[in-house]
Amino acid sequence: MPRWTPEAKWQGQDAFIIGGGHSLESFDFNLLKPEGILTIGCNDAYLRGSDICNICFFADNKWWKEHKVQLEQFKGAVFTNCPQLQKNTTSWLWIMGRHDRGLSLTALGWNHNTGAGAVNLALLLGAKRIFLLGFDMHLSRNGRSNWHNNNLDKPNKKIYLRFLKGFERLKKDLPEKFPGREIINITDDSSLNIFPKIAVKKFWNERVKGVA
Fold first, then answer.
1. Which of 4, 75, 141, 174 has the least C-beta neighbours within 10 A?
2. Is residue 9 part of a domain?
């Protein structure tokens, strides 16, 4: 697939980023099914289906090798900024360049984590408000890192420090490169504290009422 040239197809709309955090173990993913809800899922979120995960975003070549066969059956769009895949010719894979730190208007920021790249993609698509789901940024009490059991690497609590520093740079770039946009964290007990937070239950209750 040719490199993707950013198109603001989600101009002015809300977008949800489905992270990999363990807090989503108990999340009702059916809340993301209603028509009009726009979602980008990080990595294994595509396994929930395209009615829940509209776009799959991944950034790791090891993950690609593990999921390529199954991912081909996914009915949504698939995006990556993986350096090893910049010349890949897979017809259904949308490719963008990787920007190491912060946000980019022409590539996808890396910032040491897939979630940040997904945020950059949502911004390029034109989303005005971006809601983060499953951005725990720490291990669970029993040492789990993800809502699924498909970990390719052993959970490592130190890696979250890199993730958090990456998001600090992303936030710094936000008002200059994407003025007027918002990032809101809907993850209970999240260590990502630099964006406004709303409790999961409160957010969905208010959204049903048309408030959020």
1. 141
2. no
> Would residue 60 count as lying in a domain?
yes
Provide the pairing of β-strand 93-95 with 98-99.
unpaired
Q: How many CA atoms lie within 13 A of 181 on its CB side?
A: 29
What does the CA dihedral 125, 129, 131, 135 come to, rounded to 10 degrees?
A: 80
- Please tell me what DSSP assigns to residue 5: P
β-partners of residue 197 are: 185
Q: What is the pTM of this model?
A: 0.94
Which pair of tokens denotes residue 111? 């910032």
Of 32, 31, 28, the closest CA to residue 53 belongs to 32
pLDDT, tens digit, 9 for 90 and up, residues 83-139: 999 999 999 999 999 999 999 999 999 999 999 999 999 999 999 999 999 999 998
Which domain, by its residues, includes 82?
A: 14-208
9-34 pLDDT, tens digit per residue, is 999 999 999 999 999 999 999 999 99
Q: What is the DSSP letter of 3?
A: B
Joined tokens for residue 46: 């595509």
Query: Is 179 among the domain residues?
Result: yes
Number of domains the chain is built from: 1
- Backbone φ and ψ for 114, nearest 5 degrees, come out as -65, -35
